[in-house]
Amino acid sequence: MVNQIIAEIFQEIGEYLDMQDVPFKPRAYEKASETIASLSFDLGDVYKKGGIKALEEIPGIGVSTGEKIEEYLKTGKIKFYEELKKKTPVDLTNLRRVGGLGPKKIKALYKKLNIKNLEELENAAKAGKIKSLEGFGAKSEENVLKGIEFLKRSKGRFLYGYLSSEIKNIENNLKKIKGVTRLDIVGSIRRRKETIGDVDILIESKNSAPIMDFFTSMDNVLQILAKGETKSAVLLKSGIQVDLRVVDKKSYGAALSYFTGSKDHNVALRKVAIGYGMKLNEYGLYKILDNGEEKYIAGETEEDIYSNLGMQYISPELRENRGEIELARAKKLPKLINYGDLKGDLQVQTNWTDGDASIEEMANAAIKYGLEYIAITDHTKRLAMTNGLNEKRILEQTKEIDKLNKKLEKEGVNFKILKSTECDILEDGSLDMPDEILKQLDIVSISVHSLFNLSEKEQTERIKKAMNNPYVNIFFHPTGRRLGKRDPYAVSIPEIIKYAKEKGIVLEINSQPERLDLNDEYIKMCVESGVKMSIDSDAHSVSHFPYLDLGIGLARRGWAKKEDIINTLPVGEMLKSLKRS
Ligand code: DGT
Ligand code: CA
Ligand code: CA
Ligand code: ZN
């Protein structure tokens, strides 16, 4: 929103002027900034209707601030601000993010130690120069170092799976506030992206003050980045930023659509609106009348907006402008797999190797989660650090599984434990378990845990050789990536997909927050090639089954339908579908 950008620029102008010891003006910009941040209408719209006069009529905005808003709306920048930045090359934006550093302290650090950026700040703190400054001390110096360390750590993107309970908690607390009639987590989280830049929350309410007060004073807030009537933002101690917007009923659907994104989807959607002589923004969908006036048509719900644009409703996971707009206009969107469609989980580890719990405990947790079957896939012997199973132990395990299945049957529980393995692919593409053993299992799955640095050609050939074993059914976490830790190994997934199709091999969508592998683009490729997939939790503990939702979200981002995923089938049909010639 343009308001927010201008508010931030004015805030920085105030701080720059203050650094130059200009009297009075800093406070005027600061006030204008606060005013703008809390406006419930868009400055761009005001200007379009009433020009600079209308801007100046807004309380808190004067001649000089009004002119600058006009300049920004016309040119996309403010010269005065650009020049101030050049004259005072202090990186306010980043310095302000260091916990405890307000405008006053940043000014003092600049004036006395000529500190202009994070690097100079860190050097000064490490050299012990900050603690002797007036108004600072040993504690402040320590906090500066901690703050910088924290910024370094939190820079970049986050894994939603590890933050979901904290976010859920915030969501539940906000919902309890009186007057909150609707709430959605929007942005990349609603689109189920593999990684998220920040958390975006949208609320419908007529009275935002108590919501903003609560939001900015939560226990887990490290720093308040903005607090206004319609928008606030905080930095959590866990390092992630949360943006909150409060809107009214009439605009809720429009805001939901806008803040869900993606930006590319929004741009394409606005183009569709323009094609119909309409205008779409975060406040609503408007018809442009012959006299130039705008008539509100829709905005309360997303469904209203899509249908008034002659489109099917588009699920958030599809909103990346990868062809979904065209299909929705032609009413030809695929019917995606749903949350709750999985009947089984085909990768589960136990305390026979590196899992936390026994086979029975994992089975009970899966039953509680609502599944009808799991495959026990402990590692094989080459992975010695996981206490990988050798031939003797895996046979012992199959006996234990038989015993447990009998017990379940006797108790009348509709649940089946399948004998399986996460068999290691050896250096030369052969498997870490002889065929004699593999053929006694219900499902054979394979994965790469070594030689990550082979060339793409060598790695692809090695994997293909393993896939060629007639007993192999599923290839687990096909690219081996660990988000934020390890890049995928070099491998040609398109070639693997082609080979999987030929051999009838299933490729896995691994639901662990740091794997999410295959990714959405490869999933789409499998869907298009008719290669089946499984969605597995790769559970190592009884608490991991809910990760399956992350895998389903990813599958939906990859346009997968229920029939593309084998473990949506009941156990008998699923096993039949695995049969290889
Ligand atoms: P993230 O946070 O990097 O994981 O990705 P998003 O998609 O959550 O992006 P974010 O938080 O910057 O903004 C949330 C949504 O707001 C975004 O998906 C679309 C909308 N939005 C933000 N800025 C713009 C913009 O400049 N133009 C348009 N059309 N939409 C925007
Ligand atoms: Ca976001
Ligand atoms: Ca955001
Ligand atoms: Zn593994």
Task: Tell me what you see in this structure.
- This protein starts with a helix and ends with a helix.
- It folds into four domains: 2-154, Orthogonal Bundle (DNA polymerase, domain 1); 158-247, Beta Polymerase, domain 2; 252-329, Beta Polymerase, domain 3, CATH 3.30.210.10; 344-577, Metal-dependent hydrolases (TIM Barrel), CATH 3.20.20.140.
- The chain is globular and about 85 Å long.
- The protein has 581 residues and is α/β, with parallel strands linked by helices.
- The structure holds 2'-deoxyguanosine-5'-triphosphate (DGT), calcium ion (CA) (2 copies) and zinc ion.
- One calcium ion (CA) binds at residues 187, 198, 200, 243.
Sum up the overall morphology in one term: globular
- CATH level-four homologous superfamily name of the largest domain: Metal-dependent hydrolases
Strand content: 5-15%
Broad structural category: alpha/beta
Distance from N terminus to C terminus (CA atoms, Å) equals 58 Å
Radius of gyration: 29 Å
CATH fold description of the largest domain: TIM Barrel
Query: What's the CATH C level of the largest domain?
Result: Alpha Beta
Spans with pLDDT under 50 lasting ≥5 residues?
A: none
For the biggest sheet, the summary is: 5 strands, mixed
